[in-house]
Design brief:
The protein has 3 helices and 2 strands, in the order αααββ. The protein is mainly alpha-helical and 101 residues long. Strand 1 (69-74) and strand 2 (77-81) form a beta hairpin. The longest helix is centred in the middle third of the chain and has 21 residues, at 46-66. The relative contact order is 0.12.
């Protein structure tokens, strides 16, 4: 399977996980992914293809690691619904970085 096809499928799987139960977001992401791949399917420049593959991989990583769903519970409140893979151990912030030896 070509790298572009693999990335295409990965983006769609990620979209389904990230926007689960949100029909509007699922559809918008599906259209955008399909549109971007369709618009660039006849690209022949290997440099441009590498650029596009990098952008696609970065988008997939960003979606997977940074997007949290929110549900309106009333007109002024959102309930956040983080996925299990986003819940990581909190690393304490250090205001005074240690000196490298």
């Amino acid at each position: 399977m070509g790298r572009a096809v693999k990335l295409f499928k990965t983006l769609h799987r990620t979209r389904q996980q990230v926007f689960k139960n949100d029909a509007r977001a699922l559809e918008a992401a599906r259209i955008k992914i399909n549109e971007e791949f369709k618009n660039n399917k006849s690209e022949t420049s290997s440099k441009k293809i590498e650029e596009l593959m990098k952008i696609g991989s970065d988008v997939e990583l960003l979606l997977r690691t940074s997007v949290i769903q929110g549900i309106h519970t009333d007109h002024n409140t959102l309930k956040l619904v983080p996925r299990k893979d986003l819940l990581v151990e909190n690393v304490p912030y250090c205001d005074a970085p240690t000196q490298k030896q």
